[in-house]
Amino acid sequence: MIEDQEALDLAADWADISQGLKKDLGSQLHSQWIKPIQLGSFCKDTGTLDLFLPTEFSANWVADRFADRLSLAWKIARSEVRQVRITVHPRRRAMPDLRVAAAFEPAAPARPVAPAIAESTLAGLDPSLTFADFVSGSANVLAVNAAQRMAAVETPQFSPLYLKGSTGQGKTHLLHAIGHAYAANKPGARIFYCSAERFMIEFVQAMRSNEMIEFKSRLRGFDMLLVDDIQFIIGKASTQEEFLHTIDALMSAGKRLVVAADRAPQALDGVEQRLLSRLSMGLVADIQPADIELRRKILEHRLARFGNAQVPGDVIEFLARTINRNVRELVGGLNKLIAYAQLTGQPVSLSLAEEQLTDILSANRRRITIDEIQRTVCQFYRVDRTEMASKRRARAVVRPRQVAMYLAKVLTPRSYPEIGRKFGGRDHSTVIHAVRLIEELRARDADMDGDVRTLLRQLED
């Protein structure tokens, strides 16, 4: 009975934690990565709680991105939980081809056992996140240039550097890139990367074990401190105080500090004014949402990693235009599409992208209507709006109608039959033919491709 009650209590705690993560991460991320987690056993002797995922790929992904958050949430819910271990479920088989999965995302870096502030020169840095692998454009040029200055041998004109950007725009990548570049420029430098949550966990553990002197000494012994997701340090008075003292100690010793957050320093609710002042005294560099040109560059850069993977240009254009909320979703969409194609043997196509990326595409699309598409196409080609539903077969009418059908499929979630009904009750096979024809024409006819690009810009602006 005691074991049964313990299992029920764990399940109740997990339900609360999971619900909180859903609010923080959003339904899509939660459904894809957190919801599949299964509770394992809890060892009271070691304080270790096992969390299981169905595949090696998903276990690595969750461990890499959410380990700190899950660990902190469990420690708050249950003080006896000292460590959360995220692994593949022992009764599940690993993916049949781990090489394919590994090519899409770097393996999660090894997480040191507490205390996490290790003696390594490059503590916490992911070797794959470098400046060479970061794609820059007008949306992030200030942040990239500031990051490179911070990593140079010369003393930067500003300190600390505060990187501000919404989720998935590259803040974490730049933090790691700064660390790697500074290590290359200054051999022997001691660099530490951590999330604000990890900082809080280590701080609490040090207090509980009466190791605060050692904690402070190790932390302030680094030449560069990189702190991610600083917004999660809000509301913790003792942690804020220690972080403030750490900043002061590093700055007075001429060392370097870079922090990242999803909002400006002044928008950090619950942060003490002295800490806000320290965070704002250097340079606050914005990372704006990637524009269409940068999204194209990112996809092409990412595609080069896959060697012989064949992704048609219209698919790249479709992804770049449609997945516009953040870069992480954009790259994730390409990864998923190529993975599905390789594992099933299907060629990558526009229809496959529509079929397999439904959730991502729906979340990113502005609600463009078929009526709006018809109106824009008719104005562009100077044909009467009634021709969209007419039975006329003249080329001057048919081609704009086919273009409008193609755009309706690309820009709306409507099915082929639904689109057909909006074009004079046409059969779904007519719409399929129009979509495939315009895809083929775009591939070989520069004028047609130019027309479609222009219409896409007009509709999405």
UniProtKB/TrEMBL annotation:
Residues 157-305 form the AAA+ ATPase domain. It is found in: Cytoplasm. GO terms for biological process: DNA replication initiation; regulation of DNA replication. Residues 1-108 are annotated as: Domain I, interacts with DnaA modulators. It comes from the Bacteria. GO terms for molecular function: ATP binding; DNA replication origin binding; lipid binding. Residues 369-438 form the Chromosomal replication initiator DnaA C-terminal domain. Residues 342-461 are annotated as: Domain IV, binds dsDNA. GO terms for cellular component: cytoplasm; plasma membrane. ATP binds at G168, G170, K171, T172. Keywords: ATP-binding, Cytoplasm, DNA replication, DNA-binding, Lipid-binding, Nucleotide-binding. SMART domains: AAA, Bac_DnaA_C. The keyword ATP-binding applies. CDD domains: AAA (cd00009), Bac_DnaA_C (cd06571). Oligomerizes as a right-handed, spiral filament on DNA at oriC. Plays an essential role in the initiation and regulation of chromosomal replication. ATP-DnaA binds to the origin of replication (oriC) to initiate formation of the DNA replication initiation complex once per cell cycle. Binds the DnaA box (a 9 base pair repeat at the origin) and separates the double-stranded (ds)DNA. Forms a right-handed helical filament on oriC DNA; dsDNA binds to the exterior of the filament while single-stranded (ss)DNA is stabiized in the filament's interior. Domain I is involved in oligomerization and binding regulators, domain II is flexibile and of varying length in different bacteria, domain III forms the AAA+ region, while domain IV binds dsDNA. PANTHER family: CHROMOSOMAL REPLICATION INITIATOR PROTEIN DNAA. Belongs to the DnaA family. This is Chromosomal replication initiator protein DnaA. It comes from Novosphingobium olei. The gene is dnaA.
